[in-house]
Specification:
The protein is mainly alpha-helical. It is 68% helix and 4% strand. The C terminus is likely disordered.
Length: 257
């Protein structure tokens, strides 16, 4: 699920094409003129083909004889991929993504908190405390705040003692990180520590019911924050794509047929 943005010309091509597809600037079902795009972007066909392989791996495109390379229906896209999530948010689809994420978290995380309270070890408590301490030291740094927030939830999943749940964070983490980046960027006056502290205190006290309730309250607050920041982002024109106007010049060099 690693992001490709900024990794040389190959990463730039993946970034430009991926963003255009997910944002709808290249529509579902459109055919991509591979040779023409390579010429207009001044890249080799080898680079172009390698970039298309990456996008195919994310479910965005496919190639068939007689039809060529085309954009797949979004039903085929890997919505858990970190780049796809980031492109969706940058392309103006953040509200839908964060709404879906909130529903999934509401189903899973209160139960995770309940199990963590019943099963946590001293090592788990240390990991949770360290993540919370880091969260409190990230004022003004959205990247660090998102990282600390993600680390807290990762530690909570592991504290359940369930091997499958312990790795479930891999599915939620890309969306959670994007959500945290949005919130911590647009709501720097908001302090996430108290709501997370309430969860940790309940887990430390081995109180499953209280942990469940504290997590439910945290998620209610997270949902409200997400609704606020997606509205702010839209009003500020944050739909230009990752890196602001960085995509505009690249868009002029892409073509579809």
């Amino acid at each position: 699920m690693a992001a490709y943005a900024g990794r040389g010309i190959h990463g730039q091509v993946v970034e430009a094409l991926g963003y255009r597809i997910v944002s709808g600037r290249i529509a579902q079902g459109d055919t991509i003129d591979v040779r023409s795009v390579a010429e207009e972007m001044d890249i080799s066909l080898t680079v172009m083909r390698e970039s298309l392989k990456v996008l195919a791996g994310k479910g965005l495109i496919d190639s068939r004889q007689k039809r060529g390379t085309f954009v797949q229906s979004e039903r085929e896209w890997n919505f858990l991929d970190a780049d796809v999530i980031r492109w969706r948010v940058a392309g103006g689809h953040g509200a839908k993504l964060l709404g879906d994420l909130a529903e999934v978290r509401a189903i899973i995380e209160p139960a995770v908190a309940r199990h963590a309270a019943a099963r946590r070890s001293e090592r788990d408590l240390v990991a949770l405390e360290e993540a919370l301490d880091a969260m409190g030291r990230t004022e003004g740094d959205a990247e660090a705040a998102a990282g600390a927030d993600t680390a807290f939830h990762r530690a909570l999943f592991r504290a359940t003692g369930n091997d499958l749940l312990a790795r479930f964070d891999l599915l939620l983490e890309p969306g959670l990180r994007e959500r945290d980046l949005l919130v911590h960027t647009h709501r720097q006056d908001d302090d996430p520590v108290p709501s997370h502290r309430a969860v940790l205190d309940a887990v430390r006290d081995a109180d499953p019911d209280r942990a469940h309730a504290a997590m439910t309250e945290l998620l209610d607050k997270a949902g409200a924050d997400a609704e606020i920041v997606t509205g702010r982002a839209a009003r500020r024109g944050d739909r230009d794509g990752p890196g602001g106007h960085r995509h505009e010049d690249r868009d002029r060099r892409l073509s579809t047929s």
